[in-house]
């Protein structure tokens, strides 16, 4: 598959004539350190101390301030990440820390570094100036993300009063290579507690169902979840059976051929997961199709099939998954939405509607299932390098790849990593979120 | 596991053998989508689909037994080579078996017997055939000439040997659907038997239409979702004609038999087909350890052969002899079954077999029975379609039938099913499943 590094845009000739060159992103592989270089933890918020202790446990050097006089014997150490905890900011003038602490830190960032700002979720605050202060962080972080270069990203975590587990989980994800293509995002965490029992295989012992797993992003989701320890039930339509079998065999999971729009699909998926593997802990609603046409030319079958697969099937499957005896408390539901569901897309009224509807499911269901400790989230992929996007004409494809802060397309693995994080026991505090995996795409920003 | 749970041979009781599931690739008309696929390719696809369905990747099963009817000389170890190319653990033993169209069912019987005896706890049985990728041999004269040249010690001897080859001997021998001892094709044999039993064209066309309707309905209700895995872009049997009818079938010209009495057409005979199928068998304990629910039990089996060369029996009549022996051993009557799977080599094969069991003279004179076996409830026959609609890649038919019948019995919440498969050389392989 071609990516930007294998096209003429990324060639030495293009480099010589001054075409801006994207950076090869740091992507997670098992055994890799959380980040490369020391982490500056500053800002004086309520989570900073805990994060410093946690980083120490991981063997990562955390520093509380930049050395004002870097040694003259050589170059200053490049920072792997900056975590700016402004959760205790009370007043707009407290935001000056972004400039005072942030500016010198940003000058010292290594390639593929991370900036994570922690604020307090404005929805949990009352006083107007307090709300305004924390709402302001979003504008600042999204702008920082656009200013960063060399594969560095900036994201905002909005916490509640006692969100230390949630903050730790989100910061861990954002500092790691798992979040390579997550940029300019706001992730809210609540004060639910949870931790991964197994750091290397955070999904060990979990049974995960992935729909649409025969190829593309779905196959990669299945692979990443298996790598992280999950037993994967790979689901796809019978017509994709051979590709599905190959994926299931590769990851030592099982293949289940079922059309997610079939009336009994939910029962069959739950039966298979529970009888064969003993549980159904994680469900990733990834199956999706496109049938593009301008609305004026949209026929019933294009509209109906996209709605049936992308939206109605999720509602129907969830009925079975959430029925008694199926998904246990603490389960995880992750949907694959799309930038098209946020920004809309010409020729995709059906697809855009279905994917926006998915976000509606996340909004409503996350609240309903809070009592059971089941989290419901979505990822919204931007331009992802797949066989499908490889068929887009060259010029259009290059524009699509470039229209984001990282100046390149993402990979199916980037989407899969985000989903696998949301499925972790440690991500218990993350629910109702739509995390875009888009390199801070200009679309729907 | 087997070693500790199985008592010493002297006191060992046969164990129940479960049919746990199956997998096949869609069957495809010869020289169609699988024209470039070898037997090993297709059998590997069928095995890997089964492995994926049952989560057996990297696992050693007791034994894999399969075969092919049309076989290249290079495929001398077809099944073992298939295992090595599959996702099963490479320490899984395998062997080939060949009994014409009975190959697939015979493979299942062999695996079931070893499981019953406590020699293995699990096994995969199946078969594959490609009528497209058929072996082509050199003529016997050319072969002898080349072998003589190979043995020659001098150039002169070699030239002499090569000079013995005649131009007509350069024509290759392409395998034909012909019985070696009679020179008649299987269809011609069948047409003689059909004529003897006065099987009508209408009855044959009705059976063919029902086969297509049943298979189409089974696909429609998702029956094959966990029995078939797509292959090379094909997701349904390509010979299936959901919209066929007795009227359409009646319009076809006869292809076997002679004159006005000819009744057998391309519509009521199976087409040459490519495909592969496998079934998973195991003990109850092995099934439980793998969290699998038995679909049905493999109860018993019987084979028979008829003398169609010197005697006057029809070449495909052997199941008519095998079934009563199987019934007698199990204390059953022909009517004690909820489902009948009678392989549709030709519609006429099924109809002559049924007619023979209803015929008092045949049952008395040939089977040695006091009374005819009687008729069956035709609504229980080939309820999910059979070879006329699905196609018939010779060795793959047994696996298709065992898996489909086991699932049907399981879906019905229990019952008993009879399998009957006729085979070239005047043989028949039959079996009983129960759920």
Automatic annotation (TrEMBL), chain A:
InterPro entries: KR_dom, NAD(P)-bd_dom_sf, Sc_DH/Rdtase_CS, SDR_fam. Belongs to the short-chain dehydrogenases/reductases (SDR) family. SUPFAM superfamilies: NAD(P)-binding Rossmann-fold domains. Residues 206-387 form the Ketoreductase domain. This is 3-oxoacyl-[acyl-carrier protein] reductase. Signal peptide: none annotated. It comes from the Bacteria. GO terms for molecular function: oxidoreductase activity, acting on the CH-OH group of donors, NAD or NADP as acceptor.
UniProtKB/TrEMBL annotation, chain B:
InterPro entries: 3-ketoacyl-CoA_Thiolase, Thiolase, Thiolase-like, Thiolase_C, Thiolase_N. Residues 17-284 form the Thiolase N-terminal domain. Belongs to the thiolase-like superfamily. Thiolase family. The active site is at residues 101, 392, 422. It comes from Humibacillus xanthopallidus. Keywords: Acyltransferase, Transferase. The lineage of its organism: Bacteria, Bacillati, Actinomycetota, Actinomycetes, Micrococcales. NCBIfam families: AcCoA-C-Actrans (TIGR01930), PRK09268.1 (NF006740). SUPFAM superfamilies: Thiolase-like. This is Acetyl-CoA C-acetyltransferase. PANTHER family: ACETYL-COA ACYLTRANSFERASE FADA2 (3-KETOACYL-COA THIOLASE) (BETA-KETOTHIOLASE)-RELATED (PTHR42689). GO terms for cellular component: cytosol.
């Amino acid at each position: 598959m071609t990516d930007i590094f294998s096209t003429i845009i990324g060639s030495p000739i293009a480099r010589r004539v001054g075409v801006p060159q994207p950076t090869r992103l740091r992507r997670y592989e098992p055994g890799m350190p959380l980040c490369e270089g020391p982490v500056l933890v500053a800002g004086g918020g309520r989570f900073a101390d805990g994060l410093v202790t946690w980083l120490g446990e991981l063997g990562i050097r955390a520093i509380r301030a930049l050395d004002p006089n870097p040694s003259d014997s050589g170059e200053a150490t490049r920072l792997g990440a900056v975590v700016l905890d402004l959760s205790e900011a009370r007043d707009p003038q407290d935001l000056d820390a972004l400039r005072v602490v942030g500016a010198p830190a940003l000058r010292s960032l290594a390639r593929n570094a991370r900036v994570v700002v922690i604020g307090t979720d404005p929805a949990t605050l009352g006083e107007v100036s307090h709300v305004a202060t924390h709402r302001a962080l979003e504008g600042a972080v999204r702008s920082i993300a656009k200013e960063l270069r060399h594969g560095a990203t900036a994201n905002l975590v909005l916490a509640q009063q006692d969100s230390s587990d949630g903050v730790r989980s989100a910061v861990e994800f954002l500092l790691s290579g798992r979040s390579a293509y997550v940029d300019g995002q706001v992730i809210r965490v609540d004060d639910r507690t949870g931790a991964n029992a197994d750091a290397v295989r955070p999904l060990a012992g979990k049974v995960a169902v992935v729909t649409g797993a025969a190829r593309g992003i779905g196959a990669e989701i299945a692979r990443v979840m298996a790598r992280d320890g999950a037993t994967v039930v790979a689901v796809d339509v019978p017509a994709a059976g051979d590709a599905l079998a190959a994926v299931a065999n590769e990851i030592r999971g099982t293949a289940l051929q079922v059309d997610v729009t079939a009336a009994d699909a939910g029962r069959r998926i739950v039966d298979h997961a529970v009888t064969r593997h003993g549980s159904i802990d994680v469900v990733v609603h990834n199956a999706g199709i496109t049938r593009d046409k301008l609305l004026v030319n949209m026929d019933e079958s294009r509209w109906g099939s996209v709605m049936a697969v992308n939206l109605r099937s999720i509602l129907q499957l969830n009925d079975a998954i959430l029925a008694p005896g199926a998904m246990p408390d603490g389960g995880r539901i992750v949907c694959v939405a799309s930038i098209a569901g946020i920004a809309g897309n010409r020729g995709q009224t059906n697809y855009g509607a279905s994917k926006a509807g998915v976000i509606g499911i996340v909004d409503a269901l996350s609240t309903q299932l809070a009592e059971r400790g089941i989290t419901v989230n979505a990822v919204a992929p931007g331009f992802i390098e797949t066989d499908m996007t490889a068929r887009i004409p060259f010029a259009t494809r290059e524009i699509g790849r470039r229209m984001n802060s990282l100046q390149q397309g993402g990979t199916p693995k980037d989407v899969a990593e985000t989903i696998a994080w949301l499925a972790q026991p440690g991500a218990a505090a993350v629910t109702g979120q739509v995390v875009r995996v888009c390199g801070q795409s200009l679309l729907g920003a | 596991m087997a070693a500790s749970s199985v008592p010493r041979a002297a006191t060992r009781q046969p164990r129940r053998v479960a049919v746990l599931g199956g997998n096949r690739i869609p069957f495809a008309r010869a020289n169609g989508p699988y024209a470039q696929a070898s037997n090993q390719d297709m059998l590997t696809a069928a095995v890997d689909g089964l492995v994926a369905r049952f989560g057996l990747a990297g696992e050693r099963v007791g034994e894999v037994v399969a075969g092919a009817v049309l076989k290249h000389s290079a495929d001398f170890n077809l099944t073992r080579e298939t295992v090595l190319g599959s996702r099963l653990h490479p320490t899984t033993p395998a062997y080939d078996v060949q009994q014409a169209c009975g190959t697939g069912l015979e493979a299942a019987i062999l695996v079931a017997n070893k499981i019953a005896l406590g020699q293995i706890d699990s096994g995969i049985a199946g078969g594959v055939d490609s009528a497209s990728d058929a072996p082509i041999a050199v003529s016997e004269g050319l072969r002898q000439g080349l072998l003589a040249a190979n043995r020659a010690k001098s150039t002169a001897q070699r030239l002499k040997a090569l000079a013995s080859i005649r131009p007509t001997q350069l024509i290759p021998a392409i395998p034909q659907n012909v019985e070696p001892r009679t020179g008649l094709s299987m269809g011609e044999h069948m047409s003689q038997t059909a004529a003897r039993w006065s099987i009508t064209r209408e009855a044959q066309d009705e059976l063919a239409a029902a086969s297509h309707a049943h298979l189409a309905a089974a696909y429609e209700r998702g029956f094959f979702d966990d029995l078939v895995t797509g292959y090379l872009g094909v997701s349904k049997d390509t010979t299936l004609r959901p919209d066929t009818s007795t009227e359409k079938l009646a319009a076809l010209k006869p292809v076997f038999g002679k004159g006005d009495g000819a009744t057998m057409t391309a519509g009521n005979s199976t087409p040459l087909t490519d495909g592969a199928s496998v079934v998973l068998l195991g003990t109850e304990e092995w099934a439980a350890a793998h969290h699998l629910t038995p679909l049905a039990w493999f109860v018993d089996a019987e084979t028979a052969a008829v003398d169609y060369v010197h005697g006057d029996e029809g070449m495909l009549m052997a199941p008519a002899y095998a079934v009563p022996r199987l019934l007698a051993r199990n204390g059953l009557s022909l009517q004690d079954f909820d489902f009948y799977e009678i392989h549709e080599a030709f519609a006429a094969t099924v109809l002559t077999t049924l007619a023979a069991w209803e015929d008092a003279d045949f049952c008395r004179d040939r089977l040695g029975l006091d009374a005819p076996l009687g008729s069956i409830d035709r609504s229980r026959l080939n309820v999910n379609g059979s070879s006329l609609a699905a196609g018939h890649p010779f060795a793959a038919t047994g696996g298709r039938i065992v898996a489909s019948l086991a699932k049907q019995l399981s879906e019905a919440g229990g019952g008993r099913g009879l399998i009957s498969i006729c085979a070239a050389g005047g043989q028949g392989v039959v079996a009983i499943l129960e759920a």
